[in-house]
User: Which sequence fits this backbone?
């Protein structure tokens, strides 16, 4: 294949986020590894490829030299650049088809029954599903995502750069086996936990891959088929689903304007009770101090453990938040879980768990079997982000932005949907709203998405599906963390039009 014939392989995009050199390198590597440019064949000259792609000759020269250093190409004096035959030597070829008596075996003759082999079917559980294209919609009232315009990207890049210094790389690149980055643990212990009134030693803290990882570790360590697990109803679907993988005894517990109802008859017999006291999920109410003390007293009396998910406590709009349940606990009855997903970024998958030393020791050993530890370079970057004060600055900006957006959303709901009831949120980034009778918010959600408005109907969060089915379908959650404030009122106006249409049809 001659030099010039290779030019058609490469087409570079006008993508400012990726340099032309990086794009060219990616195209060449892909063509070599996919066999489009055969081993040993010559590449176009730097001058001819640059001319055909309308890029600088130096860009091609640097890319070729880079690929020579990494073994993809070999340079021959006065002859040019060639694909290194060794680059494909260790790659397996296509597998030969199985035969019996020289006749091909049909694919389905020997396939195992994978469905029958499954001991669990998590894919069949009911979970919250967010549209993948939510960010492309003009009115994304979606919960749990971040506004990239608020995130301090330059500060994060600087911390990432520090984490990639020679000394830092020497520290985090080696396998820590079961240990977390001591700098991150120290920041959690001295910077994050004291704000929640919690004192903990390093061996009482475990870094997790988000709150779900912590819940899964706990269920794996503490639950069996007889375990009775109490959860707020409505409540967090992932906590309910994780528990349901281990036990059938998942019990919904009532929630009112003060949070979880401390009902002795409902709590009695529980082994574990999962609560979100700072901002109840999904209703957003804050558990009163009296209710917190009552729950701790019930845990002591009936000998159950409380799993406190503090997922959003730091987004507070009313000054000092209520103390964490863990801070009021003197008998090791509370396991504390927190996440940085709602403040930093959900894609980072960072959280932590605080509990008694024997529990953290076993959770650490189990985590080692699952994934060793969360990525050490990311741990160091988060540690630096916390230590340099960027996290505190981000929290202040988030609290101001979310408060203003919630006020805007509440005012727009009062203007366009006065028949809806709205839970006044003391913090966080969402409103829990209830529509009038006969309104199915799941149908409203589906129609709204067609018109660029992303909302989340609330029925999925209820555990006891047999109780008040006509009530459950009336609920909806409006998140404000990702929507610009100027789009809130126009989005709710469109939502109101859809609600009118659905009510007219019912």
Assistant:
């Amino acid at each position: 294949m001659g030099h010039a014939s290779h030019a058609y392989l490469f087409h570079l995009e006008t993508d400012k986020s990726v340099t032309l050199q990086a794009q060219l390198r990616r195209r060449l590597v892909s063509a070599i590894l996919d066999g489009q440019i055969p081993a040993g064949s010559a590449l176009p000259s730097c001058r001819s490829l640059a001319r055909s792609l309308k890029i600088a000759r130096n860009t091609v020269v640097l890319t070729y030299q880079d690929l020579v250093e990494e073994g993809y190409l070999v340079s021959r004096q006065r002859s040019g650049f060639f694909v290194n035959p060794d680059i494909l030597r260790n790659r397996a070829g296509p597998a030969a088809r199985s035969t019996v008596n020289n006749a091909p075996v049909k694919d389905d003759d020997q396939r195992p029954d994978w469905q029958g082999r499954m001991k669990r079917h998590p894919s069949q559980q009911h979970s919250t599903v967010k549209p993948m294209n939510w960010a492309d919609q003009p009115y994304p009232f979606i919960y749990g995502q971040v506004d990239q315009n608020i995130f301090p990207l330059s500060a994060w890049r600087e911390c990432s750069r520090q984490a990639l210094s020679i000394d830092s790389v020497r520290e985090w690149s080696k396998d820590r086996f079961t240990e977390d980055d001591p700098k991150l643990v120290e920041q959690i212990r001295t910077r994050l936990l004291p704000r929640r009134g919690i004192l903990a030693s390093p061996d009482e803290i475990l870094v997790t891959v988000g709150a779900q990882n912590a819940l899964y570790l706990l269920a794996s360590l503490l639950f069996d088929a007889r375990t009775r697990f109490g959860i707020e109803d409505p409540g967090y679907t992932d906590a309910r689903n994780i528990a349901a993988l281990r036990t059938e005894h998942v019990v919904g517990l009532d929630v009112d304007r003060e949070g979880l109802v401390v009902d002795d008859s409902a709590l009695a017999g529980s082994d574990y009770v999962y609560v979100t006291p700072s901002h109840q999920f999904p209703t957003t109410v804050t558990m009163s101090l009296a209710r917190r003390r009552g729950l701790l007293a019930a845990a002591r009396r009936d000998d159950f453990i409380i799993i406190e998910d503090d997922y959003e406590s730091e987004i507070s709009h009313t000054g000092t938040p209520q103390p964490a349940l863990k801070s009021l606990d003197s008998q090791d009855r509370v396991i504390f879980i927190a996440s940085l997903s709602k403040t930093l970024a959900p894609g980072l998958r960072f959280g932590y768990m605080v509990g008694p030393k024997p529990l953290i020791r076993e959770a650490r050993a189990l985590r080692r079997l699952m994934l060793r530890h969360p990525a050490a370079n990311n741990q160091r970057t988060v540690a630096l982000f916390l230590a340099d004060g960027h996290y505190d600055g981000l929290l202040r900006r988030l609290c101001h932005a979310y408060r203003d957006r919630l006020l805007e959303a509440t005012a727009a709901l009062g203007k366009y949907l006065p028949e809806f009831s709205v839970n006044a949120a003391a913090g966080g980034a969402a409103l829990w709203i209830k529509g009038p009778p006969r309104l199915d918010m799941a149908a409203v959600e589906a129609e709204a998405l067609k018109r660029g408005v992303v909302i989340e109907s609330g029925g999925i969060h209820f555990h006891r599906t047999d109780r008040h089915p006509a009530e459950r379908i009336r609920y909806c959650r409006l998140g404000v963390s990702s929507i610009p404030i100027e789009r809130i009122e126009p989005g709710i106006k469109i939502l109101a039009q859809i609600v009118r249409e659905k009510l007219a049809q019912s």
